[in-house]
């Protein structure tokens, strides 16, 4: 192996020499360890070196803990930390969590760094996942013989950092913390300064500069709201874990830092507990734990933490020995217990094995669901056997409510934080209950949260055999590099209506906890209250369910596809139906003249049984029963119903006939009127997205052309201020790309001869080095961490669109790629909680380092990372990225889009690939 693949220019070399003179120990240590990593990667090819990498990395981070505890070498430990922060996405904590050093050491306030005597002295604590996991898993293990339900508090499973800071200065600011304080549009200047003086640090970071001087503050303090404080808040005694006010109504017409306080207070005291917690075991199994519905005590108030500490203390020979909250050990012990077997969920009719197949055939029956029959069956089981679970009962109640709602009258279920003030309308994409303002679009943390969100949802569906597939913009983004578009702020997935009901019955109102060995994600699965309604109706409930990150409010939109009476739209982009198919369906006798024995399963009872025309007549006859906005909406819908285009296949048909026509044509839709033919969806194909398995609809291009002007070529693209560079296999901001390409001919940067759309291999290296030089450190980290995913997607595209091989040959190659390379794909993003911890830790190290020391550490770590990164790119360039001795030589199969995307990538997205 060459000593360095990446040629380091003179300036970089001089920096290394300075570092060597200043700290020989650091240079020797970093050189040895990083070269060891490179050596392992060299001996064991990239796709097969994860075990060896883990051994090296774990050794490094164990050494970091020792160094940090001993405080022997700040520079060395800072270098290890910087490497992990930016170039390792494994969900491994860089330090350990102990009773004395962590839980009982006050993190802020006028008692900062004080060591408390016992847990009885705690008035707040951070929701470190290691603490929560350890205590609650220990409770489950100890109660496996007579377990019924587990205590729960939102406080133990969410980020309350800013709220805890207020609790830490409660005694010195008791007069400030009132209902009036909580509902002001922004902080009072003097109150904020008083709080931060007591804290000895900032209360929050987001747009804090607006409060830093009175002149700027005057601009944000001009905002007013019209909150009825008496109706929205109650004064209560303050105390441990309790500010002296109780928010009873969520009002989001305040700035984000104020709403954060309100939302957290509301969750603690006035929001229902979830029905259960679901613990994931990777993508293998799910374990559902019932939650006490009548108690919201946290682990101190419930006594669980006291029991844990006493039990762990009794197990030690030395009672003064510190207690570690080793959550992974508790988790793995839990998996071995009998209670885990009792709590494991197996859903009838759901097949986990589908994710082991290249192609997944769905049944047309998956898209039909008779709600009335399901209610009848559940009622029978309840009355005959009395064996319905808490989730079953909730599901039954939801169905009985849903089936009796007319689509025009269904109230909006999901609510976003739309009215947050001075937040650039970003609240539109956050759940109102879990809004956490500081997590802003475009930031590394936001990208990490999106990554955690989709990865955990995919593992959740896989572990339960629930079928869903990527759709809309999420499907579009997968097409290019297997990652979300950098400008997207949520994900879209679809599923058959039957699987939507499976998910609703077993997991609605469950907190889904990611396998702690893979991440610390915490999500609420929330299904809407009208899922039996399958038409657009009043348009307030186009989304059937959401998978919500409870630490930020960011979510996945989930929609079910089913047969319905929704009129088939005329799509200008692509024709979903041939004239012959339409004509044959319209003359079908069942469609033309449905008998009296044929019923529309959408219809419920009373008002829910009325068509929109019939409902309009009823409203006109009973105007006092409806609100003004309801009457207007129903009148508007009735007008639209009668104005279908003359060319619409649904024109002139009754509601029942439309339903039968759609079923005859095998046309399924979501509640927002997006239609697909059954054969556009099935068979689904197994792929990877964000490093985890994901299902993709059969006709990807056709599906995308319905909604987007999909470019036919796999080529250089510019959109939303970002450029897709095929050789980078990545979307990079146009401004950063200009700097990387050195369009200004800066002599301090590398000279680039080629253009962005004809970027040569050597210029690619120069461009990445330029990004480092201009301080765009996040891009090197993003390139490095996503490389295994983008390489996988590139090879998948090359195989799928190679028309020189048959569909069967493609399937053999795709299966080999999926089963041998797929499992080695690393997460393209860090766990958000670990990222935040390491980022804050890095800030503390920055305070101890000189600017020169910090610059040298960053430079040295990044040069070594670039060297590692470039080795992978060199393997790709030389067609030796994959092990050539296996069943399929992936280096040789498929197109060569990396080298020849201009020629071989032309028009490949003009049609669907022939893979089955």
Automatic annotation (TrEMBL):
One of its GO terms (biological process) is N-glycan processing. It comes from the Eukaryota. It is found in: Membrane. The chain crosses the membrane at residues 26-44. One of its GO terms (cellular component) is membrane. Residues 463-708 form the LicD/FKTN/FKRP nucleotidyltransferase domain. It is a single-pass membrane protein. Keywords: Membrane, Transmembrane, Transmembrane helix. This is LicD/FKTN/FKRP nucleotidyltransferase domain-containing protein. It comes from Kazachstania africana (strain ATCC 22294 / BCRC 22015 / CBS 2517 / CECT 1963 / NBRC 1671 / NRRL Y-8276).
């Amino acid at each position: 192996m060459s000593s360095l693949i990446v040629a380091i220019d003179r300036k970089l070399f001089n920096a290394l020499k300075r570092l060597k003179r200043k700290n020989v120990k650091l240079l020797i240590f970093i050189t040895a360890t990083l070269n060891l990593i490179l050596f392992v990667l060299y001996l064991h090819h990239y796709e097969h070196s994860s075990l060896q990498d883990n051994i090296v990395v774990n050794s490094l981070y164990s050494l970091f803990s020792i160094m940090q505890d001993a405080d022997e070498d700040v520079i060395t430990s800072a270098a290890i930390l910087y490497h992990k922060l930016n170039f390792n996405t494994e969900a491994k904590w860089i330090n350990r969590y102990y009773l004395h050093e962590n839980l009982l050491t006050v993190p802020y306030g006028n008692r900062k760094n004080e060591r408390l005597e016992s847990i009885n002295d705690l008035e707040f604590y951070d929701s470190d996942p290691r603490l929560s996991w350890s205590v609650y898993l220990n409770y489950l293990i100890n109660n496996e013989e007579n377990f019924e339900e587990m205590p729960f508090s939102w406080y133990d499973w969410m980020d309350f950092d800013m709220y805890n800071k207020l609790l830490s200065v409660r005694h010195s600011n008791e007069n400030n913390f009132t209902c009036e304080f909580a509902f002001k549009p922004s902080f009072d200047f003097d109150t904020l300064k008083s709080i931060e003086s007591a804290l000895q640090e900032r209360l929050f970071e987001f747009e804090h500069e607006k409060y830093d001087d009175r002149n700027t503050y005057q601009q944000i303090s001009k905002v007013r709201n019209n909150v009825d404080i008496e109706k929205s808040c109650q004064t209560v005694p303050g105390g441990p874990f309790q500010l002296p006010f109780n928010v009873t109504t969520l009002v989001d017409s305040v700035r984000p830092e104020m709403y954060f306080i309100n939302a957290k207070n509301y969750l603690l005291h006035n929001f229902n507990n979830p029905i259960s917690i679901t613990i994931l075991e990777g993508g293998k199994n799910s374990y559902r734990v019932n939650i006490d519905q009548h108690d919201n005590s946290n682990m101190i108030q419930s006594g669980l933490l006291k029991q844990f500490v006493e039990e762990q203390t009794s197990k030690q020979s030395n009672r003064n020995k510190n207690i570690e909250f080793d959550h992974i050990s508790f988790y793995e012990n839990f998996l071995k217990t009998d209670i885990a077997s009792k709590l494991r969920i197996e859903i009838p009719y759901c097949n986990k094995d589908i994710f082991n197949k290249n192609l997944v055939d769905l049944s047309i029956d998956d898209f039909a669901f008779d709600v009335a029959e399901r209610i009848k069956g559940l009622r029978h089981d309840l009355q005959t056997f009395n064996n319905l679970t808490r989730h079953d009962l909730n599901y039954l109640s939801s169905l009985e409510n849903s089936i009796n709602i007319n689509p025009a009258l269904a109230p909006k279920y999901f609510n976003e934080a739309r009215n947050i003030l001075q937040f650039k309308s970003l609240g539109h994409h956050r759940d109102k209950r879990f809004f956490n303002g500081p997590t802003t679009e475009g930031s590394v943390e936001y990208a990490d949260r999106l990554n955690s969100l989709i990865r955990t949802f995919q593992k959740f569906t896989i572990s339960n055999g629930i079928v869903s597939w990527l759709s809309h913009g999420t499907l579009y983004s997968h097409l290019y590099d297997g990652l979300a578009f950098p400008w997207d702020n949520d994900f879209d997935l679809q599923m058959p209506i039957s699987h939507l009901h499976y998910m609703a019955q077993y997991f609605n109102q469950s907190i889904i906890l990611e396998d702690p060995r893979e991440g610390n994600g915490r999500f609420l699965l929330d299904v809407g209250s009208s899922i039996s309604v399958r038409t657009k109706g009043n348009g307030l409930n186009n989304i059937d369910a959401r998978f919500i990150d409870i630490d930020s409010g960011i979510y996945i939109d989930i929609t079910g596809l089913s047969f319905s009476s929704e009129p088939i739209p005329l799509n200008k982009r692509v024709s979903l139906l041939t004239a012959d198919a339409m004509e044959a369906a319209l003359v079908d006798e069942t469609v033309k003249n449905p008998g009296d024995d044929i019923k529309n399963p959408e219809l419920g009872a009373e008002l829910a049984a009325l068509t929109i025309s019939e409902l309009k007549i009823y409203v006109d006859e009973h105007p006092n029963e409806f609100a003004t906005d309801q009457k207007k909406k129903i009148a508007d819908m009735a007008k639209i119903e009668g104005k279908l285009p003359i060319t619409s296949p649904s024109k002139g048909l009754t509601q029942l006939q439309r339903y039968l026509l759609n079923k005859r044509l095998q046309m399924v839709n979501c509640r927002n009127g997006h239609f697909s033919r059954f054969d556009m969806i099935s068979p689904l194909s197994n792929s990877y997205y964000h490093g985890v398995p994901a299902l993709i609809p059969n006709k990807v291009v056709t599906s995308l052309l319905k909604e987007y002007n999909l470019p036919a070529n796999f080529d250089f693209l510019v959109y939303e201020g970002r450029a897709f560079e095929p050789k980078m296999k990545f979307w990079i901001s146009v401004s950063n790309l200009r700097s990387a390409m050195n369009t200004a001919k800066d002599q301090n940067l590398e000279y680039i001869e080629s253009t962005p759309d004809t970027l040569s291999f050597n210029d690619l290296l120069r461009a990445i080095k330029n990004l480092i030089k201009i301080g765009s450190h996040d891009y090197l980290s993003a390139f490095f961490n996503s490389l295994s995913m983008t390489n996988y997607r590139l090879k998948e595209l090359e195989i799928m669109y190679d028309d020189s091989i048959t569909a069967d040959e493609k399937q053999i190659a795709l299966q080999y790629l999926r089963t041998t390379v797929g499992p080695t794909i690393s997460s393209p993003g860090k766990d958000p909680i670990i990222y935040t911890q390491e980022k804050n830790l890095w800030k503390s190290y920055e305070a101890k380092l000189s600017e020169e020391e910090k610059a040298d550490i960053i430079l040295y770590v990044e040069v070594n990372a670039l060297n590692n990164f470039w080795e992978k790119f060199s393997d790709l360039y030389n067609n030796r990225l994959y092990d050539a001795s296996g069943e399929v030589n992936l280096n040789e199969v498929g197109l060569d889009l990396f080298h020849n995307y201009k020629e071989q990538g032309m028009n490949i997205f003009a049609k669907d690939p022939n893979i089955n």
